[in-house]
Amino acid sequence: MKIYLKTYGCQSNIADSEQLANLLKEHLVTTEKEADTIIINTCGVKEKTQNRIINYLKSIKNKKVYVGGCLTSMIDLTKYTNNISGIFDTNTITKVPELINQVHGIRIESKEKEDRIHLSQLRQNKEIAIINISQGCLNKCTFCGTKAARGWLKSYSIEQIKEQVEKAVNEGCKRIFLSSQDNGCYGYDINTDLSKLLNEIIKIEGNYQIRVGMGNPQHIIKILPDLIESYKSNKIQKFLHIPLQSGSDKILKQMLRMHNKETFLNIINSFRKKIPNIHIATDIIVGYPIETEKDFQETMDLLEQIKPEVINISKFARRPGTYATEKLKPLTTQEIKRRSRELTKLKLKLRKELNESRSSR
């Protein structure tokens, strides 16, 4: 058997695929052409990505195909092609070696999360270790379909994570990416938190830097002073990814984001006051179903105020099973595209101003 592994989605998904790749390493090939079997680790965050995955599935000819990842818990991919030999979900990755030896049409799923923290990884980049510190989250966002796939929060212990970081550093990794669906709520289920985790990890000797993945504001605010202190370590990359999603408190409330503009600004201003060289990345959803022109302008105004170094823009897309999809009337495609263009112009303007500011120093 010759297997080609294709991955879509976030850092957490990549980490899952690296663990899966290690389980299957004796069978892996580097190109699709060489393979007689293809395994696809899917992502369900965006409709655009979903369409790419479906089109890719339809394009595969004369090969066995196994599909896993978040999208398998959100839609029935067998409706789009009859060329699927087996399906697994985010909680059955370790069962894949068994799956590919079963008869055609097997589906393996579980509501119980696998304990995968100790699994070795076949890394794409030998100098970068992506380590999932938890699975699932504590949020109930009305637009997010990932919750159906990843479920509620399960944090790994500080000792388990520290052991994996030490292992990665000893294996020559220079950059450690701490990833999950939401780093902000790490540890809330096991009586610890992200700052305590970082304080332990930075004790590890070696030449490496830690990049902390996305954390939601409603959780970050609870540990803000301690987290800022942790970030002062020269082993922590001065990068904070904190998603805003909207600059309108009305929209944030409707999204069940559990934070408001004041909370977000408090976090940004506090970090910049204590760590002036911090880089801020944020995420914005354009065209949420009840977003008015006034709501959109509030988002534009807030971004103009905080001037984040990175703005990730997503046009609202309907995700299966979510409140926003099933209960709210969407805006027109034309209006969503218009607002996205306006926000992109602002993003480019802010980037230009930032570059000019840096060059003048």
| Strand neighbour order, sheet with most strands | 1-2-3-4-5
CATH superfamily of the domain at 3-108: Methylthiotransferase, N-terminal domain
Class by helix and strand content?
A: alpha/beta
Low-confidence stretches: none
Strand proportion: 15-25%
Number of strands: 13
- H/E element order: EHEHEEHEEEHEHEHEHHEHHEHEHH
Count, helices: 13
CATH fold group of the domain at 3-108: Rossmann fold
The biggest beta sheet reads: 5 strands, parallel
- Could you report the average pLDDT, rounded to the nearest whole number? 95
Classified by CATH, the class of the domain at 3-108 is Alpha Beta
Fraction of residues in helices? 25-40%
How would you describe what is shown here?
The protein is α/β, with parallel strands linked by helices and 361 residues long. The chain has a domain at 3-108: Rossmann fold. Helix content is 37%, strand content 16%. The chain has helices at 11-23, 47-59, 96-99, 146-150, 158-170, 194-201, 217-220, 224-231, 249-254, 261-274, 293-306, 323-327, 333-359; strands at 3-7, 37-42, 64-69, 86-88, 106-108, 128-132, 134-135, 154-155, 175-179, 209-212, 239-241, 279-286, 310-315. The strands form four sheets. It has a five-stranded parallel sheet, with helices on both faces. Strands 6-9-10 form a three-stranded parallel sheet, with helices on both faces. β9 (175-179), α6 and β10 form a beta-alpha-beta unit. α5 (158-170) runs parallel beside α6 (194-201), α6 (194-201) packs parallel to α8 (224-231) and α11 packs parallel to α13. The protein is globular, with a radius of gyration of 21 Å. The model has no long low-confidence stretch (mean pLDDT 95).
